[in-house]
Amino acid sequence: DGAKSYLLLKDIFPQNAVDLGMMSKAGVKSLIYRYFRKKEKKLYALSDYIGCMSGANVKYVIDHNPEVNPAKVEVCCNAVEVIDQSVDEKTRKIIREKYGIPQDKTVFVYGGNLGKPQGVPFLIECLRRVQNLKEEFFLIIGSGSDFEKLERFVNEERPENMKIMNSLPKDDYDSMVGACDIGMIFLDHRFTIPNFPSRLLTYMQAKLPILSVTDIGKIIVDGGFGWWCESNNVDEFYTCVKKIKHDQKRGKLSYQYLLDHYTVEHVYNTIVKRLT
Predict the structure, then answer these.
(1) Which helix (H) or strand (E) is 232 found in, with range?
(2) Which end of the chain is more exposed for a tag (fewer CB within 10 A), N or C?
(3) Does the reported pTM lie above 0.85?
C-alpha cells in the first residue's frame, strides 16, 4: 500500500544474546543465532528508516550491516513527556524518614530491572567494596531474575550503608528517586553493542547527577552531568564513589540535557521529518 515504516531500534538482537552467552555463532546454538540474524537483516531491509538510541548505535548498525544504506539510519533516542520529579527539602526529609534512609548521607540509588543484562554479580562486588564507607548510602530498588542474589548478599553480610527494596508503585518510586542524590546505571561488561538504559531518563527528571558503569558514560561526562567508570573494575568504581559528593549544579545540567535531547517533541520531529 506504499506506507513508509520507521523502525525504532531499542535493542540490537540477537547480538545482545550472544554477548551474554545465551546464543553462539558457532556450534549447535548457532542455528538459533542464524535464524534470528536473518530476521534482523530482513527487518532492516523492510524499514524505510531506522532510528537508533545513540550515535554509537548508528555506527554499530552501519558497520555490521554493510547492505544497509547509511542514509536511512539516524539517532532517535528514548524520550519522555518531561515531568519535573525533583522534590523540595521538606519532602526529601519526609520520604527519607518514611523509608529509613539516612538524612545526612550522600544517597546513591539504582532503580529498575535486576536481571542478566544488568551484571548483578558485578554490582554485588561493587557494593561489597563500598560497604564500609561512612558518608555514602546505597539504595537498590528493583526486581528480576537476579534479585535473589542481591538479597542473599545483603542478608548474609548485613552491610549498614545500604538497603534493597522490591519494586514499588511508579509514583512511590519516582518520589523515592527524587529524594536521593546520585543515580546509578549498571550493565554487564560483556556487551559489545552500545546500550541506552531507559532509567537514565528517570534520574534526569529527578534532577540527579548520574554515575554510569556503562558505555553511555561518555554522553554523561561530555554533558557535564555525571561520572563514568568501567563495568568490570571494582576498584575504579570505589575510587569514583569516593570523589562524588551531592552536586546540585550537575543535577541541573542533567535536567537541562533531558530537555535539550530526550523529550517526546524531539523524537516526534525526527520521525515526522522523515515521513512527510
Answers:
(1) none
(2) N
(3) yes
> What is the spatial distance between Cα 217 and Cα 50, in angstroms, rounded to a whole number?
23
**240 to 212, 227, 229, 265: CA distances (angstroms):** 10, 8, 7, 34
Q: Do 124 and 149 touch, CB atoms closer than 8 A?
A: yes
The strand ranges marked E within the chain are 6-9, 49-52, 73-75, 106-113, 136-143, 162-165, 182-186, 210-213, 226-228
Work out whether the CA dihedral 132, 245, 53, 218 comes out positive or negative: negative
Q: Would you call 226 helix, strand, or coil by DSSP?
A: strand
CA distance 106 to 194: 29
User: 201-245: per-residue pLDDT in tens?
Assistant: 989 999 999 998 877 778 888 888 988 887 778 888 898 898 887
Distance between CA atoms of residues 141 and 190, nearest Å: 23
